[in-house]
UniProtKB/TrEMBL annotation:
<feature type="transmembrane region" description="Helical">
    <location>
        <begin position="167"/>
        <end position="186"/>
    </location>
</feature>
<keyword id="KW-0472">Membrane</keyword>
<feature type="transmembrane region" description="Helical">
    <location>
        <begin position="270"/>
        <end position="288"/>
    </location>
</feature>
<dbReference type="InterPro" id="IPR037185">
    <property type="entry name" value="EmrE-like"/>
</dbReference>
<feature type="transmembrane region" description="Helical">
    <location>
        <begin position="38"/>
        <end position="56"/>
    </location>
</feature>
<keyword id="KW-1133">Transmembrane helix</keyword>
<keyword id="KW-0812">Transmembrane</keyword>
<feature type="region of interest" description="Disordered">
    <location>
        <begin position="371"/>
        <end position="393"/>
    </location>
</feature>
<feature type="transmembrane region" description="Helical">
    <location>
        <begin position="327"/>
        <end position="346"/>
    </location>
</feature>
<dbReference type="InterPro" id="IPR004853">
    <property type="entry name" value="Sugar_P_trans_dom"/>
</dbReference>
<feature type="transmembrane region" description="Helical">
    <location>
        <begin position="192"/>
        <end position="211"/>
    </location>
</feature>
<dbReference type="InterPro" id="IPR050186">
    <property type="entry name" value="TPT_transporter"/>
</dbReference>
<feature type="domain" description="Sugar phosphate transporter">
    <location>
        <begin position="40"/>
        <end position="344"/>
    </location>
</feature>
<dbReference type="Pfam" id="PF03151">
    <property type="entry name" value="TPT"/>
</dbReference>
<feature type="transmembrane region" description="Helical">
    <location>
        <begin position="139"/>
        <end position="160"/>
    </location>
</feature>
<dbReference type="GO" id="GO:0016020">
    <property type="term" value="C:membrane"/>
</dbReference>
<protein>
    <recommendedName>
        <fullName>Sugar phosphate transporter domain-containing protein</fullName>
    </recommendedName>
</protein>
Length: 403
């Protein structure tokens, strides 16, 4: 975003066209960015919690709407909502509410097949399986099981050689697994199939967010693939096809839909369509804010915020849906969340070390270029560095002029 005022700014509060003034802290870029990110995260909390409660109310075996019982085809509903999200994203872009990213690089078919299709398939499977599991287990148990995603992130990282095993990460995995065991032991309405489904969704969740960050923030090989809505436009067709294929393969639509009260008459069909559209609108707003959080921050910040969001969701399930939450559940949740916090801390420490290494490498490049400009001999790679260069590197890293 371009600054509104260039050069020196007046010490008095900046004027605002709506309220007439802004507080002094608003002139600080870091505080503005922090306030923006906190606002995005809180908005994401709101829509995510609303969507979770709405899905449980519609799909849960003890719920349903208008006394009709649970919706008979969760995967079909998920596919239709993906299609609705695509239409909503196109409508928002067409109305000019959100502008396209001007410097976006168009994806080739090869890049689309390599990046978008795996992301869309994994995202579609993750959300579809998650929604289906809500028809078998409680929202609080689902949320707590979904918190085990870091374990599967680490397993995939170990298999692909991205992460090296360490005792710290082993402790994290042990803590999260201990919390999961306590959650299963304390669940009063345990369903094995639902548990297996939500754990499968957790495995897919780590994969989909890793690829999502590549699409949103880019890599060294190519730029990012546009803003959050543009990424949503790319992903939702693949997501809808994936969930739709799963629905056709497993839900026997030709048998279940005609016998369901949700499709018993034209009026029921209209109400059902509006209900699905309403859920799609909530999901669209949630995914929009979700992708925006990742685009504005990082997947790590998203995961940290997600840890606390899960606690909020569990509390909402207990308060608004009357779900049971035993002492063992509470202890298991505390253990699991502590493991996730440790995981995020170790990842944050590693990212700091990586950034410091990049800064040191960049500083050494500056030193060598400066010595070449002054006619000094630059030692070949691998030879001992002179003391002066090392001292200058430290000065550059500290941000002080050379003494």
């Amino acid at each position: 975003m371009q600054p509104l005022i260039n050069g020196q700014q007046s010490p008095r509060p900046a004027r605002d066209t709506l309220f007439g003034w802004r507080p002094l802290w608003w002139q600080n870029k870091l505080l503005r960015a922090a306030a923006k990110n906190v606002g995005l995260i809180l908005t994401w909390y709101f829509f995510s919690t609303c969507l979770s409660i709405w899905l449980t109310q519609l799909l849960g075996k003890r719920h349903g709407i208008f006394g009709k019982g649970p919706f008979p085809a969760p995967l079909l509903m998920t596919s239709l909502q993906f299609a609705a999200q695509n239409l909503m994203a196109r409508l928002v872009m067409r109305c000019g509410l959100i502008r396209k990213v001007q410097d976006k690089e168009a994806l080739s078919w090869r890049q689309y097949a390599k990046e978008v299709v795996p992301n869309g398939v994994s995202t579609g499977l993750d959300i579809a399986i998650s929604n289906y599991s809500l028809s078998l287990i409680t929202l609080s148990f689902y949320t707590m099981c979904k918190s085990t995603t870091p374990v599967f992130l680490l397993i995939c990282a170990f298999i692909w050689g991205i992460e090296r095993p360490s005792w710290n990460l082993a402790v994290v995995v042990a803590i999260i697994c201990t919390g999961l065991i306590m959650l299963v032991a304390g669940e009063t309405q345990f369903n094995l199939i639902g548990f297996m489904l939500v754990m499968s969704a957790s495995m897919l969740s780590g994969l989909r967010w890793t690829i999502t960050q590549v699409l949103l923030q880019g890599t060294d090989a190519h730029g990012k693939s546009g803003g959050p809505l543009e990424v949503l436009l790319q992903l939702t067709p693949v997501m809808a096809l994936t969930a739709g294929a799963c629905s056709l393969a497993t839900e026997q639509l030709w048998y279940t839909l005609p016998r369901s009260p949700y499709f018993a008459s034209p009026s029921h069909l209209l109400v059902t369509g509006l209900v699905i559209l309403f859920g799609g609108a909530i999901a669209f707003l949630m995914v929009w804010t979700e992708f925006t959080v990742i685009a504005e921050t990082s997947a790590l910040t998203f995961m940290v915020a997600g840890t606390f969001k899960e606690i909020v969701t569990v509390m909402a399930a207990v308060l608004f849906l009357g779900e049971d939450f035993t002492l063992i559940n509470a202890m298991g949740l505390m253990v699991l969340v502590s493991g996730v916090i440790f995981f995020n801390y170790f990842r944050y420490q590693k990212s700091l070390q990586t950034d410091l290494g990049m800064k040191k490498s960049h500083s050494l490049d500056i030193v060598e270029e400066g010595r070449q400009d002054r006619g000094h001999h630059v030692p070949p790679p691998g030879s001992p560095s002179p003391a002066k260069a090392t001292g200058l590197t430290n000065v550059i890293l500290r941000g002080h002029p050379e003494g």
